[in-house]
Amino acid sequence: MKINETNLQFKNLEKRAKTDRVVIHHTAGNRNATVADIHQMHLNNGWVGCGYHFFIRHDGTIERGRPEWAVGAHSLTVNARSIGICLAGDFTIYQPSEIQLVSLEWLINSYLLHKYPLINIVGHSDTDSTQCPGILFPLDKFKNITSQLVKLIVNGRLVNVPLRIMDGRTEALLSDNWVQLRELANMLGADISWDELTRTVNMSIK
Ligand SMILES: [Zn+2]
Question: Which residue intervals define the domain N-acetylmuramoyl-L-alanine amidase in the entry (predicted)?
Fold first, then answer.
């Protein structure tokens, strides 16, 4: 699998300072659309070009949209801190193709997570008031990719508590409340560090 580079021309783009989310979208339209179609559509909207950073066609082809370093135009609330991926199709009516989901998984696991270890995977409906990416898109499965990847080690031992990353910070579910590990460490006077490669929080309590 690979990212197919495209030669889309953009007017002017702004550099994105932060990347802590990946937002998944559907086109809510024609399942045969390509990134070039979306680029033209967004230009027609008066935008600088395709608002998504990646596009996955119905046949699973991954295409590059807006350059990865640029602020996208795909989710009003998190454009400044996120990468947008759009899948061709309307998943309020039918499911994405199997190969589209395989491509999406590859893009997240084999590419994005290596480059941006702290990202959270979310759906557009998590960041704005919308049905996108549609009720028939398996959003939970993709959100779990990142939430399940974080590990917590306290004094050298793996601790088995539910963990998630919110706004770039790791939280643990303790007595039904999500608690920021850094705050917890501060309270306990413990040392805390993050290992990007293994997505592990190391805490050492003296
Ligand atoms: Zn969307």
Answer: 8-134
Q: pLDDT for 172-190, tens place per residue?
A: 989 999 999 999 999 999 9
Distance 74 CA to ligand 1 centre (A): 6
**Non-local CB neighbours of 117 within 8 Å, separated by 6+ positions:** 196, 197, 199
Q: How many whole angstroms from 24 Cα to the centroid of ligand 1?
A: 7
Q: CA-to-CA distance for 205 and 152, rounded, in angstroms?
A: 13
For tokens 């339209």, the residue is 29
- Regarding an ipTM greater than 0.90, the answer is yes
Q: What pLDDT does residue 204 have?
A: 96
Residue 148 has a pLDDT of 63
140 burial level (CB within 10 Å; 0-12, 13-18, 19+): exposed
pLDDT at 150: 82
3-147, which class in CATH? alpha beta
**Nearest-angstrom CA–CA distance, 43 and 177:** 45
Radius of gyration of the chain from Cα atoms? 18
Residue 129 CA, ligand 1 centroid: distance in Å: 10
Domain spans, the chain: 3-147, 151-204
